[in-house]
Amino acid sequence: MKKLFASSIVFATFVLAGCATSDMNTNAGTAIGSANEIGMNIFKAAIDKQCRSQIEKQNAWRIASVAMTDAQEEEIKGRVCGCVSEQAPQQVTLVELGNAAIDANYRTQLVTKVVAKTLQSCYGSTVK
Hints:
- The protein is an all-alpha fold.
- Helix content is 92%, strand content 0%.
- α4 packs across α5 (104-127).
- The chain is elongated, with a radius of gyration of 25 Å.
């Protein structure tokens, strides 16, 4: 009987320890996931801002925007830059994102590079 009781206690200890470890890993994973999501949202916001700036510099946009209302301009910019922001994560590696989080100059270069890669395709597919 003592052996059964002792083995039950040992078993219960392992089960509870496993649950505690699982909770710690889940909490750490949630924190990392939240930090990653915040970082990605900041990155996407920078992409959106750069995209809007680049659109306004394009000759095709200047010509087309003459015939648009302010609301139409904002709608098209929103759709085009939304597309660019959604494609941005596919254009960068985790290493690049890590470097961008640390170095503001690198972040600016990365954002410019990503916008340049995706702006034309998004503009073309949105305006069609």
